[in-house]
Structure formats: structure tokens, C-alpha cells
Fold:
Amino acid sequence: MQNLFRKLPKVDILMKDEKLAEIKKKISYSSFYQLITDEINDFRNKIKNREIDSFNVEDIIENIILNAEKHSKTNLKKVINGTGVIIHTNLGRSILNKKVFEQMKDIATHYNNLEYDISTGKRGNRNSHVEKLLTKLTGAESAIVVNNNAAAVIICLNEFAKNGNSIVSRGELVEIGGSFRIPDIMELSGTHLKEVGTTNKTHIEDYKNAIDDETKLILKVHTSNFKIVGFTKQVENLEIAELGKENNILTMEDLGSGVLVDFSKYGITKEPTVQESIASGIDLVTISGDKLLGGPQCGIILGRKELIDRLKKNPYLRAFRVDKLVLSALETTLNLYSDEREAIKEIPTLKMITENSENVLKKATALYNMLLENNIKTTVEKTRAKIGGGSMPEETVSSYAVRFQGSPEILEKQFREGNINIIGRISNDGFIIDLKTVFDEDIPLIVKKAITIKELF
Structure:
């Protein structure tokens, strides 16, 4: 053991070793010093615990190089989505158009007019960069952007219903991602929840009977992440809006997913659009930017100008405001909606939802053939891809996948881990990669990964 301890190199000697010269150039002095110190200490502990009975300096240097590669990698990284879930909450939800990214890069690497009015030379408002676009696309009088839809709901309830009652149907008391519930959001905002109706049926009379002197707002929540089917009844927006006006009470809808396109035109189940919600006369509408709208994570509040003006003065806005990158991504995404055909073609989320399944079959066939060329046998099968993301519950679109032979649990783990991270799914006792959510440029990477684990097939 003493001989092994004596073989351990000194830190200053290793810091001068030519094999580590490239690492020394890439990282700071303190990080380089720490890498070497940690590795020597690791070997010292292994000797002490009798885990090794021999080694050489080359072993230590090799480990330092491997650890340096690990340290240089970021935790947040690209993955290939082979699950077939288009808006995958765990995998970053909507993918941004590359034009959007280019604009973001320009804004991120230069000074910009975030809160500067170029025409007047005076301080500007960061919300002004997207407000006109939002009002033009939705028909709302005014709009404001916050960091997510939960924040949008909180700030509205805090401003307009604090210390008063907010009426909500029992069938709309949803729980969203991360166990975040509508009742919790209402409590946080300072309003009191007043439930009406039943889980499956709520009538306009239920709302009418619940109105009292403490009522400040009627809240309608779109159940975008679940469905109640069968013996059901819900009150339409138009009736809610009329009831609010008759009683001088504000009405609000948490629409959530932010649909600006009528999907029924493309053979997909219709979701209520933002434009329809605004046209119904509802006073305030909140939506997400990173679901079916296909933009960055944010919450968008749409409604009457005097109401939005009040929100702009609410203290919560400072805590909930978005930065230059979100505004840049949102503005560029919204610009694509000026022509619906352009939006369908250029916004990845919309493109995948409306894409002809024959295009997916071409990708699946290309992957199948490339794998076969490398003696990896698979099969191509028809699947149903999910829209996902708490947007359209159980709504699926036609797709195709490649099924691999071998233990599905082992294959799922091997594809997921390593330098190329491919997230597939286990279906009917087999591991598959659904091509609906795979981009053309990622197919060679899937083949490359498959070759490295070829012995498992």
C-alpha cells in the first residue's frame, strides 16, 4: 500500500503534463487544478480502501481527460424526441422555428431597444413590442405578457377579485402540471373560491344563484388537460359574458393552450380559439405561449384596454415580467401568424400536428433502410402520435414508428443515455421510435447511436 501511495504523482507535475495541455487551455486555472486534485484524491482513497492493487500515471491522466469532458457539458441539452408526443412538457414543449432563434441570437448578443423608444429617444415599454401584434391577431383591445399562464391567472385575480368571491364551476377546478391547482392559484392571488354546479353539469342558473355582494369575478377554465364525457353540461362563454354584463361583474376565461388556428379545417378535433373567446364578450382571456401557439414559455393576457392598463400597474407585474429573449421569440412567432398558411408551414408544433402521415412514413422508411444497411433489423409500423402538453387530451394524429428487436427496457435505457440522448417509448412489449417528432437531421444520429449498441439487437 505504501508503494502505491508513493506512486501518486504531485499536482504540479500533472499540471505541466503535455497530455493535459488542451484541457488547460479550455478551462480556468482553478478548475484545472481542482480536476487534478480530485483525481489524485480519488486514487488515494481507492488505495486506502484496497479497491486497487496497481495503477500507473496514465490511468490518472485518462480519468482527468474523461472528467474534463463531463464537466464541459451542460445539464440542459438537446434530446431527440422519439416518443411521438408533439408538445412534450418534460422535453421542452413547443419547438421554436429556426428564424425565431436567429432573431433571438441577434437580440441576445447585442444591445437592443427593450425599454427604449427609438422614435422619441425616451424610455419605452417592453410590452409594446408584441401588444399590437396580439390585438391584431386576436381581436382584443389590449394585451400584456407575463412569464407563464399561471402567473397570468394570478395577477388577474389579484387585481380584480382580491378579497372578494370568484365563481368557478366544479367541473373546471383543474390541476395542471406539477400538482398546481386552480384553487391554490386563487388562494395565492387573494380571492375566495365559490364553487357552483357539479363535476359533470353546470347551468347558467348555478352562476346566477351564486352572485352576491361579495362577487367580483366569474372565472371560466378551459379543461385542456382532461375531458368529461357522457351526461354533461357546461355554460357557453356568450352566456357567461352576458351574465357578467347584466350584473356589472367581470368575466374571465383561462383558455390555457392558446389556439389561434381552427384545427377542424385540417381534419383534427376543434379546440376553442382565442379569437372566439374574445368575440364572445368575455372581459379577460389568458393563454400560454408555448403550447398550441408554438412560441416560447409565457402567459398572455388579452382583454379590454382599461383592464389591461390596470394590470400594467399591478405590483405582481414586476415579478412576472418576461425578458428580451422571450419577447423576441414571441414577436417573431406571432409575425408568422400574419399568414395562416405560413404559420402551418413554419411553426414546428403546427406543422407536426397538421403534417400528412405519408411524410412521416418517408422518414420512418429512411431510418429503417439506414439501419438495415448496418445490419440492424427493425420493422416499420403505423402508430398514433399524441398532441400532448396539456393542450388536447387524448387527441392523436396518424404517424409511423420504427420498432427495434430486443429487451425494450434495456433498449430504452441505452438509447436514452450517453452522448446522444434519444427518448423513445415502450409500446406492446417493444421499444419504438416514433418519427412524428423526429427531425430529418436527427435520423443519422439515431443510426449512429444504434450502431454503438448493436449487440443488444
Residues 29-48 form the longest helix (20 residues). The chain has three domains: 2-70, 80-89+351-456, 98-346. The two ends are 44 Å apart (CA to CA).
